[in-house]
């Protein structure tokens, strides 16, 4: 039994799903598989009948698709290799399959696990350890009345690196506010430049022939980015807009734009870091979950994701957006020095490029007493007083 567990809080494995590979130490073959399949059978010519499922020394395994016949399924299989993040859906953050190994030419006490494990999710980015002995696995029957133990268990840990996964960033952030008419765009060439196709994939301006060519790819291959030609050249842009200020609350709009003509982002998620996220009052049209990144001492990070069947898919050329209401912490709240804007933004687990701090929207005349609504109230009261005096005259 092979089980893949995704312990990432906010990084999931999207379609076309995970691929798992390893190298056999000897001349092992896979006689049969349940819940998954090897993408190649390899050379099984030495077997005259009852051919093994896979004879390759370095097999690559993929999950079965939804709707697979019941007699080919295993627990937690058959989702096309898609794994959810732990926060979004922990029950779908696990995948497993079974296989029978032959020709190992050793006894149970001398069984040697394979080496050189690799996993893609769906592209590169993961680096895996060697197998180490783990606690013996316990299996519980579906009726819960019987348990069995594995004879041996090994653990392999794979760590993700954004630098290995992508040649450049994959998203960027733009900013705006109600108190400044200027919109701070994503930095120039945030993810690539239009004259650097090796980083950004292909840059198009509604070129339908390029899009039609892309649809013929293999279902096991990850789509190469076909990005709309922009100054930032990012597949995804997140826009943070400070909308309004009330007496005890302030309001923010977050918009996600998909500039990738080759991909719908299914089960997307966004993580924001801001000191006021520990005082969220209400989130509209998105799911939200605070993230405990510091052992409960500081609550400045939260994860947003779409509502199933409503806005959980970020379509090609489309956008999704939400408003969030935050309570004002009178001891810390201010609009000065860019405090109202996020410190970091992550999309699908990848760090997004932020504008430089000196480019953030500034307050009128360079400063504004905090809180803003108090200052506006004083201005309004002063104006009404003058109006009353004029009318009295």
Automatic annotation (TrEMBL):
Keyword Membrane: yes
GO biological process: cellulose microfibril organization; plant-type cell wall cellulose biosynthetic process
One GO CC term on file: plasma membrane
COBRA C-terminal domain ranges (all copies): 170-361
Family: Belongs to the COBRA family.
Lineage start: Eukaryota, Viridiplantae, Streptophyta, Embryophyta, Tracheophyta
InterPro entries (alphabetical): COB_C, COBRA_pln
Keywords: Glycoprotein, Membrane, Signal, Transmembrane, Transmembrane helix
Domain of life, per lineage: Eukaryota
Membrane-traversing stretches: 374-392
The protein, known as: COBRA C-terminal domain-containing protein
Pfam families, per database record: COB_C, COBRA
Organism encoding this protein: Amborella trichopoda
Transmembrane helix listed as a keyword: yes
């Amino acid at each position: 039994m092979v089980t893949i567990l995704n312990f990432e809080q906010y990084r999931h494995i999207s379609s076309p799903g995970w691929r798992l590979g390893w190298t056999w130490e000897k001349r092992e073959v896979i006689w049969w598989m349940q819940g998954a399949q090897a993408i190649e059978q390899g050379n099984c010519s030495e077997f005259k009948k009852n051919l093994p499922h896979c004879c390759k020394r370095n097999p690559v395994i993929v999950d079965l698709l939804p709707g697979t016949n019941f007699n080919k399924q295993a627990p937690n299989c058959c989702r096309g290799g898609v794994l959810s993040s732990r926060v979004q859906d922990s029950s779908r953050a696990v995948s497993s399959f079974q296989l029978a190994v032959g020709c190992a030419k050793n006894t149970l006490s001398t069984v040697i696990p394979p080496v050189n494990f690799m996993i893609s999710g769906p592209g590169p980015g993961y680096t895996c350890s060697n197998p180490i002995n783990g606690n013996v696995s316990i299996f519980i029957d579906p009726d819960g009345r019987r348990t069995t133990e594995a004879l041996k268990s090994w653990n392999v840990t794979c760590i993700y690196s954004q630098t290995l996964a992508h040649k450049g960033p994959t998203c960027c952030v733009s900013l705006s506010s109600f108190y400044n008419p200027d919109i701070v765009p994503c930095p120039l060439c945030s993810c690539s430049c239009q004259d650097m196709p090796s980083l950004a994939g292909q840059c198009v301006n509604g070129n339908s022939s390029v899009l039609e060519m892309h649809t013929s790819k293999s279902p096991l291959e990850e789509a190469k980015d076909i990005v709309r030609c922009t100054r930032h050249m990012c597949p995804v842009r997140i826009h943070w807009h400070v909308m309004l200020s009330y007496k005890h609350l302030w309001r923010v709009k977050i918009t996600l734009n998909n500039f990738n003509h080759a991909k719908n982002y299914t089960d997307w998620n966004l993580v924001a870091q801001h000191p006021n996220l520990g005082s969220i009052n209400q989130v509209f049209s998105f799911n939200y979950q605070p993230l405990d990144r510091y052992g409960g001492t500081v609550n400045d990070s939260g994860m947003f994701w779409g509502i199933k069947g409503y806005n959980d898919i970020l379509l090609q050329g489309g956008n999704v957006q939400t408003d969030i209401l935050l309570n004002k912490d009178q001891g810390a709240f201010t609009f000065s020095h860019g405090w109202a804007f996020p410190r970091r933004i992550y999309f699908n687990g990848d760090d997004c490029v932020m504008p430089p701090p000196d480019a953030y929207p500034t307050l009128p005349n360079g400063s504004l007493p905090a809180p803003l609504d108090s200052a506006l109230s004083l201005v309004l009261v002063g104006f009404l007083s003058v109006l009353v005096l004029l009318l009295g005259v």
